[in-house]
Amino acid sequence: MTMPTAKVTKRAVDALELPAEKQTILWDTEIKGFGVRVLPSGLKTFIIQYRNIEGIKRRLNLGRYGVLTVEQARDQAKIKLGAVARGEDPAKEVYEARRDMNVAEMCNWYLVEARAGRILGRKNLPIKASSLDKDESRIKTHIKPLLGKRIVRHLTPSDIEQMQSDVKEGKTAKPRGPGRGGRATGGPSAASGCVGTIQAIIGHAKHKGLLAKHPTEGAKKLAGRKKTRRLSVIEIEMMGKAMAYAERNGENPVALGALRALLLTGYRREEGQAMQRAWVSTAGGYVAFPDTKGGAQIRAIGPAAVRVIESQPEIVGNPHAFPSELGSGAFTAVSACLQRVCKLARIEGVTPHTLRHTFGSVAGDLGFSELTIRAMLGHASQNVTQDYIHIDEALKLAVRRTSDEIERLLALGAARLETLQIRHMKEHECLAA
């Protein structure tokens, strides 16, 4: 979106409203081709736009507002556009310099551009911050140490595959640092992820004109192993028994609530933990997520899961269904609680994704179709712009029946614990007598 032209002054730049998406440009009325661009993030950058002697449209960043004053930017614009009038191309040096970017420089370029919303990902939307955080971690931990100094346009598919082998074999493994993150171990999953990240970065660079061709196209990526682990009926009952025992022995009730909600909904860990009470419609039987891995979605939720949410403590100023004890954030340690419960139940190989797969598998056991199960898990398109009243009633029924069945199995496990405790009490009474 482009605003009407006006003289670019400090007051005009300060008054620029942030666009809801993409960008807004205010073009100067005195110097043709000089303007200031503002992004949704609030970043304001002075730019010039012109056509070179070949008729190719160029846009060149002069500098960020705050680093440059309006007067300094106007002076630079006059110099650069004067060069254009003489048949020169001020952006040519920039474009040629980028052709010889090394991998580290191109990764830095990507992170800056993507975080500013100027690189689009899935569904032609800006790449999510969580995805960029993951990319940045791979870049810092694996890609830069192995390929950082290499010139991008000289790379070959075999270079990418060698990087993948090195990460897989743990050559970039390192101990845990002082921050919150865990230690970098490498392995097949990390290796495959690094290939995906660097190939995407090079692809974006080519799309933006920084490269004439994708030099590593065709590099082979390790096939991922499909996660098929689910909890059996017996294991669900064992989880119920272990959760009841943990509850009576001091386990964090919010952690157990979040864990139970994941079991009863099949939601992704991030979705369940970050859920806010305002998103939940008890009467409508849905949760309106403003953002998920597949974008904004309406997801059906059964009464059993709603009861878990409603039983959680409400903290003033904290909107989350599973609130953190401190601040206004969400509880984020459900994975640690899951591992403690699994240890009590003597169940191995369980992750939050296992709970999601279990929900889908129980739905399959109940006779629901693969298409219905995909919709239950949020794989099918359910855009929030649709009328909430018209959420598929059959889908709600499927979610409710699946949730009720898992709740029943958990309750059976808890009842077994109760029976054991009553038996032990009677044994003690007999001994005392």
From TrEMBL:
GO molecular function: DNA binding
Family: Belongs to the 'phage' integrase family.
Keyword tags: DNA integration, DNA recombination, DNA-binding
Residue ranges occupied by any Tyr recombinase domain in the UniProt entry: 226-401
Stated name of the protein: Integrase
Species name: Sphingobium lactosutens DS20
GO biological process: one example: DNA integration
Region feature (Disordered): 158-190
Annotated signal peptide: none
SUPFAM superfamilies attached to this UniProt entry: DNA breaking-rejoining enzymes (SSF56349)
One Pfam short name: Arm-DNA-bind_3
